[in-house]
């Protein structure tokens, strides 16, 4: 605990539904590269990056200097009622890398707001409030975004401004599709979509919103090609596809720059956030002009795309591309993924080591089946912290340890973190078994 009892002060003024990690919560006071330091002076290798947000790491000169140059102008904020050079430049870059033809970009402050904006656009374009969403998904904490979140633990209200129909996620461990041979799952997913459209919807449907890899859901994902199987049917009905790239974007999966590219389709809208700001509040939605222009009223985002955050965003995207961090995610992610599968993948308590690039999860179950074991996941989570490694938790049942390190992670750091992870898993499994 910190000298001024920060934990007690936190609990006295902040809501109880805001969770804190760890039995003894941490205050992080400094960071450099891929490491952070707590209030007691202990250093940790960070494999969660502020929930996949500190994508380039900590104290990066190029980003710091870009922000300082903007600060030196005296203009921290002007609102989008005025031209913002940094915003225009970043929008041009994002439009180019989005893969969406004739793209337009609207900036917001968070992934939640980005998804809200995408839903606003899609429902206006289609003149319908009917939405297709995916089980075990997470799209944000605001009213409509929560309404399309398929994870009860994050759904604080049953009230919903949208009419939502749910698709199977393609989870390879649980659910109806998991019972099928992998070769049959795409056809089954397509059949599921057709049945949902025939039985749970009326008239036009606005969109399907889906994550290529489900973040809060524990990094679960269906087979490559799932979006293509869905989109073939969506196109028959004129239904838009929104790819939620808040966690999968910017090359994190290693094999592609965007998660949707693993499926051989191009979405009508994609949302982005987290890593592009490297800690500065920056997010947005990209879409085809004819779709994004569908909002029939004046709208703007007071702080979205402000001069400071977009100065940071320009520096982040330039750094990302100049240093081929997508390639690094593939190389270094393979060290972690392959290493975990070799070292602990056969343990009875490890149901699956999954993910792509530097987006990896380990799901823990009770031996002998697929019954989730959240207690074991928590034990591994705490043991990693004791070993000097910060990781995340998630999954529908809270039984997945998640890793989303900065994309600048080195091979040496990957092996260091891997050793801590393997020891934490083996020790925790042994203690539970005893």
UniProtKB/TrEMBL annotation:
Tree of life domain:
Bacteria
Its Enzyme Commission number? 2.6.1.44
Q: Keyword Membrane, does the record have it?
A: no
Under InterPro entries, the record lists:
Aminotrans_3, PyrdxlP-dep_Trfase, PyrdxlP-dep_Trfase_major, PyrdxlP-dep_Trfase_small
Under the heading Pfam families, the entry gives: Aminotran_3
Q: Which cofactors are named for this entry?
A: pyridoxal 5'-phosphate
Q: Which SUPFAM superfamilies match?
A: PLP-dependent transferases
As one GO molecular function, the record gives: alanine-glyoxylate transaminase activity
Q: Which UniProt keywords apply?
A: Aminotransferase, Pyridoxal phosphate, Transferase
Q: Is-annotated flag, keyword rRNA processing?
A: no
* Family membership noted in the UniProt record: Belongs to the class-III pyridoxal-phosphate-dependent aminotransferase family.
Cite the record's note on assembly.
Homotetramer.
State the name under which the record lists this protein.
alanine--glyoxylate transaminase
Q: What is the lineage of its organism?
A: Bacteria, Bacillati, Actinomycetota, Actinomycetes, Micromonosporales
């Amino acid at each position: 605990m910190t000298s001024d009892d920060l934990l007690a002060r936190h609990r006295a003024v902040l809501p109880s539904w805001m969770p804190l990690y760890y039995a003894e919560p941490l205050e992080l006071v400094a960071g450099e590269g891929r490491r952070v330091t707590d209030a007691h002076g202990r250093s940790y290798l960070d494999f969660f990056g502020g929930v996949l947000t500190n994508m380039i790491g900590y104290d990066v000169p190029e980003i710091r200097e870009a922000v300082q140059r903007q600060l030196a102008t005296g203009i921290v904020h002007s609102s989008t009622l005025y031209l913002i050079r940094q915003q225009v430049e970043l929008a041009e870059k994002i439009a180019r890398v989005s893969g969406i033809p004739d793209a337009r970009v609207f900036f917001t402050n968070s992934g939640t707001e980005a998804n809200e904006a995408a839903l606003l656009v899609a429902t206006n374009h289609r003149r319908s409030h009917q939405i297709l969403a995916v089980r075990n998904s997470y799209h944000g904490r605001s009213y409509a975004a929560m309404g399309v979140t398929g994870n009860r633990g994050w759904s604080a209200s049953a009230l919903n401004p949208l009419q939502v129909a749910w698709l199977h996620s393609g989870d390879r461990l649980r659910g109806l599709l998991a019972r099928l041979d992998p070769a049959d799952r795409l056809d089954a997913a397509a059949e599921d979509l057709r049945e949902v459209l025939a039985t749970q919807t009326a008239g036009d449907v606005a969109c399907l919103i889906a994550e290529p890899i489900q973040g809060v859901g524990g990094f679960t994902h269906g087979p490559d090609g799932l979006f293509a199987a869905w989109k073939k049917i969506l196109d028959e009905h004129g239904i838009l596809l929104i790819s939620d790239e808040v966690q999968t974007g910017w090359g994190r999966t290693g094999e592609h720059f965007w998660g949707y590219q693993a499926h051989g389709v191009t979405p009508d809208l994609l949302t982005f956030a987290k890593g592009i700001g490297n800690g500065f509040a920056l997010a947005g939605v990209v879409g085809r002009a004819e779709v994004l222009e569908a909002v029939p009223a004046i709208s703007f985002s007071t702080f979205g795309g402000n001069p400071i955050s977009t100065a940071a965003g320009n520096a982040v995207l330039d750094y990302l591309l100049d240093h081929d961090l997508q390639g690094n995610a593939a190389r270094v992610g393979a060290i972690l993924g392959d290493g975990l599968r070799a070292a602990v993948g056969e343990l009875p308590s490890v149901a699956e080591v999954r993910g792509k690039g530097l987006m990896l999860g380990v799901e823990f179950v009770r031996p002998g089946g697929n019954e989730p074991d959240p207690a074991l996941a928590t034990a591994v989570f705490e043991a990693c912290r004791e070993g000097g490694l910060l990781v995340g938790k998630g999954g529908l049942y809270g039984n997945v340890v998640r890793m989303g390190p900065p994309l600048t992670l080195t091979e040496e750091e990957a092996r260091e973190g891997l050793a801590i992870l393997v020891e934490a898993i083996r020790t925790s499994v042994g203690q539970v078994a005893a």
